[in-house]
Design goal:
This protein is an alpha/beta fold. The protein is about 40% helix and about 20% strand.
Length: about 500
């Protein structure tokens, strides 16, 4: 896509708005790539009287234009006001050109509840917040209500955590097979799987070093999250060694939630679940993705719907574990009847939490390069599926408690976590906030630190296990990075 901008506006923001209407597009400075290359011409003018924007979108011989002007508003900075004006002009233009109204309006970014929460803090009522989300950000009434309800819940939950609390994320970046929509394709190769023993040896050292530094800084770990990959790719013995290391170094008396991702049913055994329970794990994920075996095969999953049911039943028999199940709307080849069956099955099983994702393929994934069209701007089937999941789960006494969005998601939709009363995942809400430190160890881990002034800084661990292992057998390089983290105030 070609984007021509005149005026003072963040180019990245403009490109993200373009992706709402043209998912999967890449941006070029070339004059013309082909006859069907979308083109945006945008003019932005700022004066003391307000901000004006004019947008013109073209595809081949078709083009539409729209303009918008707004005076300054006390509740918005000049930058925010300019984004709203530009977004409104582009939105109106895109809607006319493509006959499509994005359900999330001009709201970009991964955390829609953050914007809703900021507005709620200013306006103090849900009604006023929903009204502004619909009028200024052009959200549909359904999405405005969803974002507002989650924001209010998050604000209440986050108020329970003091500034000296933090979370620990432990990365196990290995999977038994690769999903067609995932870009981490080489994590499942036999060569990398063979690295697990060496990887764990290094990881144990990093857990020890990180936790010691966290304690020295006067912070208290309140949630521990073991993610991946698929952590239950580890053998029973390897999993027990990992959990023993964590519980040995972390003061578990202060931990209110201990999560183990066990997403692949084909990696679960009764012994692994019993080990998890033995070491105090409180929450696990057992993920069907879909209850349609043909779709599972198509996306590279090696388990069946029956395998999921057996794994779920096994977890219930072990007892004492809060279970989350992940399902995905809009998977290639899936339809409403199939997805509705998946939702109905989850409701009948009654896990403590259900996370409803909308299909999203990473750019480096196999499915993107397979020739299958994975980008869908206006996917009525996916919209119907997501709406059905929200109605059915709400009717079964689940409440939405966290939300995030991704670029190029089918139908421009969202991912929402639902839970039974009091069964929310604390870590999921904490990672979406800008008020909580999350320290990460292991390959691909991302540490997010929040300063006393509210500034945020991130530290990244190398993505691949072999890169991680190359950082020094004794962990010297990682220890230096950890010490730099602790200096951030």
């Amino acid at each position: 896509m070609i984007v021509n901008v005149q005026g003072d506006i963040n180019l990245s923001y403009v490109q993200n708005l373009c992706l709402i209407f043209f998912p999967g597009e890449k941006f070029s400075r070339e004059e013309k790539l082909s006859d069907d290359t979308p083109v945006l011409d945008l003019i932005v003018e700022k004066t003391e009287a307000g901000c004006y924007a004019r947008a013109r979108m073209s595809i081949g011989d078709k083009s539409e234009s729209a303009e918008y002007f707004a005076e300054p508003k006390p509740m918005y900075s000049d930058e925010r006001m300019a984004k709203i004006v530009v977004g409104t002009a582009m939105y109106n233009c895109g809607c006319k050109l493509l006959n499509y109204r994005p359900p999330w309006g001009i709201l970009t970014g991964i955390r829609p509840a953050k914007v809703a929460g900021s507005l709620y803090s200013e306006l103090e009522t849900k009604t006023a917040t929903k009204k502004v989300l619909s009028s200024d950000y052009l959200l549909s009434p359904k999405k405005a209500q969803l974002a507002t309800n989650i924001a209010v819940f998050e604000n209440k939950l986050l108020s329970k955590f003091s500034s000296n609390t933090c979370s620990l994320y432990v990365s196990i970046p290995f999977c038994p097979t690769r999903c067609a929509y995932c870009s981490f394709v080489s994590y499942s190769t036999k060569r990398l799987i063979s690295m697990i023993p060496e990887y764990l040896e290094r990881l144990f050292l990093d857990i020890k070093n990180m936790v010691e530094l966290i304690k020295a800084k006067g912070q208290r770990i309140v949630t521990v999250y073991i993610g991946g990959g698929t952590p239950t790719t580890l053998s029973e013995q390897e999993l027990e060694a990992l959990l023993e290391c964590i519980t040995h170094h972390v003061d578990m008396n202060g931990v209110i939630e201990f999560t183990l991702e066990a997403g692949r049913p084909d990696t679960l055994t009764k012994q692994k679940l019993e080990v998890a329970k033995k070491y105090g794990v409180t929450r696990i994920s057992v993920n069907p993705q879909t209850m349609n075996d043909d779709i599972l095969k198509g996306i590279g999953r090696k388990h069946t719907a029956e395998d999921f049911l057996k794994a779920y039943d096994m977890a219930r028999q072990v007892g004492g574990l809060s279970i989350n199940t992940d399902i995905i709307a809009g998977l290639p080849g899936d339809n409403f009847a199939s997805f509705a069956k998946t939702v109905d099955t989850m409701v009948s099983l009654a896990p403590e939490a259900v996370t409803v994702h909308t299909f999203f393929a990473k750019k480096a994934s196999d499915i993107v390069h397979s020739g299958i069209n994975v980008y869908s701007r206006n996917n009525a089937e996916a919209v119907k599926c997501v709406d059905y999941s929200q109605v059915m789960l709400s009717g079964a006494a689940y409440r939405p408690y966290y939300i995030y969005r991704q670029k190029n998601t089918v139908g421009n939709l969202e991912n929402v976590g639902f839970c039974q009363d009091g069964k929310h995942g604390y870590y999921n809400s904490l990672i979406m906030s800008d008020r909580h430190n999350i320290y990460a160890v292991g390959a691909g881990g991302s540490t997010k630190l929040v300063s006393q002034s509210g500034a945020i800084k991130r530290f990244y661990v190398p993505k691949y296990p072999y890169e991680y292992l190359e950082m020094g057998a004794e962990g010297e390089k990682m220890l230096a990075i950890y010490k730099e983290m602790m200096d951030f105030q």
